[in-house]
Write a structure and sequence with these properties.
Helices cover 35% and strands 21% of the residues. It is built from nine helices and 15 strands. The protein has helices at residues 25-34, 50-59, 72-83, 133-144, 168-179, 191-201, 215-224, 239-243, 259-271, and strands at residues 6-9, 16-17, 20-21, 38-43, 69-71, 88-92, 105-107, 121-124, 148-151, 157-160, 163-166, 184-185, 208-212, 228-232, 251-253. The relative contact order is 0.18.
């Protein structure tokens, strides 16, 4: 491992659950900041903007600002600007993320008539009440008529105070199979997302660690991108999912509160 310079951190299930801080998380993040390490909070959360997330975390005591946060919607906007400039998109998402989709031409799903109503891209964000039959069937129709499918992530579920809740991946698999298309994924676990996060903190892959509760999308995906992966046993972590994973995390810790001690160990090893 090269000299450790930065930490990439998932939010939901690692720092918070239902936006409430997990024990020791605030203090651990402060300690990491004080150690001079770069920090990027990298999240597939699609229900809030970067500014909203930053306000919620700061109010809870976390030393963060909007500039520290990289969301799947923000990365999706950059992806569409690069790969589909000017594309007309329809968005299936739970929550208002318009602020982070600057520059993306988002149509109302019932806008226009005839050919004008057919978008170039169907963009799928985070699941929620909006993912009803009618909305999914409209998306299916757009895909049959040639629209591309871009999804912010494939997460099957996430954890709230009420337990595990279904997420986008559970619906996305059906859309892909029914329409015989494959979604372009812009958030975690895509390599492009981790590349964007590393550029955000100005670190190379060998100079960073990624901390997450999703063994596949957070940890193993980061490891495939050359970033050391740290799995926490909080949030959506399940022992059976860990055992059935497609690879082995570099490190496993009980919670984010244990991260500063691990980072001290890694920095010491890199200096030897």
């Amino acid at each position: 491992m090269q000299s450790l310079r930065a930490v990439l951190i998932d939010i939901d299930g690692v720092l918070t659950v239902s936006w409430q801080p997990l024990p020791g998380a605030v203090e651990a993040l402060r300690e990491i900041r004080e150690a001079g390490l770069g920090v990027a909070l990298v999240t597939n959360t699609t229900s809030r903007t970067r500014a909203s997330i930053a306000r919620t975390l700061a109010d809870a005591g976390f030393p963060v600002s909007a500039e520290d946060i990289l969301t799947a919607p923000a990365v999706t906007a950059a992806y569409l600007a690069e790969h589909s400039p000017g594309a007309r998109c329809v968005l299936l998402n739970s929550g208002d993320i318009a602020e982070d989709l600057g520059g993306v031409a988002v149509l109302r799903d019932d806008e226009g008539a005839g050919d004008q109503s057919v978008p170039d891209v169907v963009v799928v964000g985070g699941a929620g009440p909006e993912f009803g039959y009618a909305a999914l069937n409209r998306a299916f129709g757009h895909l049959q008529r040639g629209a591309r499918l871009v999804a912010m992530h494939r997460n099957l579920y996430w954890r709230t105070d009420d337990g595990l809740q279904l997420d986008t991946g559970a619906f996305l698999a059906g859309l892909e199979k029914a329409a015989r298309v494959e979604a372009e994924i812009t958030g975690k676990p895509s390599a492009a997302f981790f590349e964007a996060a590393l550029a955000h903190v100005g670190a190379g892959a060998g100079e960073a660690v990624m901390v997450g509760d999703d063994v596949e999308s957070d940890v193993l995906a980061a490891q495939r991108a050359g970033v050391r992966g740290v799995l926490v046993r909080t949030g959506k972590y399940l022992p059976e999912t860990h055992r059935a994973a497609s690879g082995t995390p570099d490190h496993v810790i009980d919670s984010f509160a244990d991260l500063p001690a691990l980072l001290r160990e890694l920095r010491g090893a890199a200096q030897e």
